[in-house]
């Protein structure tokens, strides 16, 4: 029973540590959908359907216009990436629309960030989109508005609005290279450790020694493998890129397989050692 509890505790701990890569700061739930700001342009009509968690903005904008919908107060947020995520759709839109996040800094003008490569036009179905805002050390916005940027006439619909905090990474290619090096080193360490563990475990199991340590290490391998798989799967579920999720998924599967195979092999060796010990004991007793 102790090893099973150890497995559960290790899995939970490693999953929590791995999941610290990004954090949810705010989510616009169904109960907040009707609390949009009073800073919308004149003539804007907002319709809310809490049952399906959807807000629809109908407008006639003569030129590019900001529609700040939901105000989110912030505190001590700096040196990170703020990312506004939502699903966006359009209906009879004569022009273009996208997500927009407006940041307010104390004593400074407001600044904005948009999902420039994910415009909607005409009539489109819901699709996921994101608008990032990069904050350097010392840059601390006191609040942000989550909304849209649009021009022309028509309707833009939003759902599943949320604000996330992510580590500050200057370039996705650089991030991929860093992660590749990190996971490559982790894989190499796992290979070296597995070779030593296999040799030592086989030797000890063959002599019937350190059973708890050897089999407990196999459970530890499986715990690490499950934690890495959970981390990789949660990365994909949160909309993360495959290059972030693939290394922990692969390494987790290998660790889980090694742990399971080692546990089975070592148990068999301990059983054989015990049978040999009992046979030797029977021969000794029969010779007296």
Major sheet characteristics: 7 strands, antiparallel
Order of helices and strands: HEEEEEEEHHH
Annotation field: number of helices: 4
Measured as a percent range, the helix fraction is: 40-55%
Q: How many domain modules?
A: 2
Are there runs of 5+ residues with pLDDT below 50, and where? 1-20
Oligomeric state of the chains in view: single chain
CATH homology-level superfamily of the largest domain: Galactose-binding domain-like
Query: In what range is the share of β-strand residues?
Result: 25-35%
By helix and strand content, what is the structural category?
Answer: alpha+beta
How many strand units? Answer: 7
Average pLDDT, to the nearest integer?
Answer: 84
Tell me the CATH architecture of the largest domain.
Sandwich
Radius of gyration, whole Å: 28 Å
CATH class of the largest domain equals Mainly Beta
Q: What's a concise summary of this model?
A:
The protein has 288 residues and is of the alpha+beta class.
């Amino acid at each position: 029973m102790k090893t099973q509890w150890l497995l559960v505790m290790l899995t939970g701990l490693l999953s929590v540590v791995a999941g610290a890569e990004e954090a949810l700061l705010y989510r616009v739930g169904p109960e907040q959908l009707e609390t949009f700001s009073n800073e919308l342009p004149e003539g804007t009509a907002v319709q809310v359907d809490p049952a399906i968690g959807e807000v629809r903005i109908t407008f006639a904008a003569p030129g590019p216009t900001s529609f700040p919908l939901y105000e989110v107060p912030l505190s001590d947020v700096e040196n990170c990436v703020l990312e506004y995520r939502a699903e966006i759709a359009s209906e009879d839109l004569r022009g273009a629309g996208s997500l927009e996040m407006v940041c307010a800094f104390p004593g400074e003008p407001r600044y904005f960030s948009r999902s420039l490569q994910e415009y909607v036009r005409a009539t489109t179905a819901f699709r996921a989109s994101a608008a990032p805002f990069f904050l350097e050390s010392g840059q601390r916005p006191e609040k942000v508005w989550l909304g849209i940027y649009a021009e022309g006439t028509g309707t833009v619909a939003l759902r599943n609005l949320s604000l996330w905090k992510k580590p500050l990474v200057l370039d996705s290619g650089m991030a991929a290279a860093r992660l590749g090096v990190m996971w490559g080193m982790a894989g190499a360490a796992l290979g070296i450790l597995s070779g030593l563990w296999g040799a030592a475990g086989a030797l000890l199991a063959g002599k019937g020694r350190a059973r708890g340590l050897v089999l407990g290490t196999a459970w530890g391998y499986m715990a690490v493998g499950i934690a890495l798989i959970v981390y990789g799967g949660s990365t994909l579920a949160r909309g993360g890129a495959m290059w972030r999720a693939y290394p922990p998924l692969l390494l987790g599967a290998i660790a889980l397989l090694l742990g399971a195979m080692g546990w089975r092999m070592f148990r068999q060796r301990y059983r054989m050692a015990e049978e040999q010990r009992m046979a030797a004991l029977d021969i000794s007793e029969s010779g007296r």
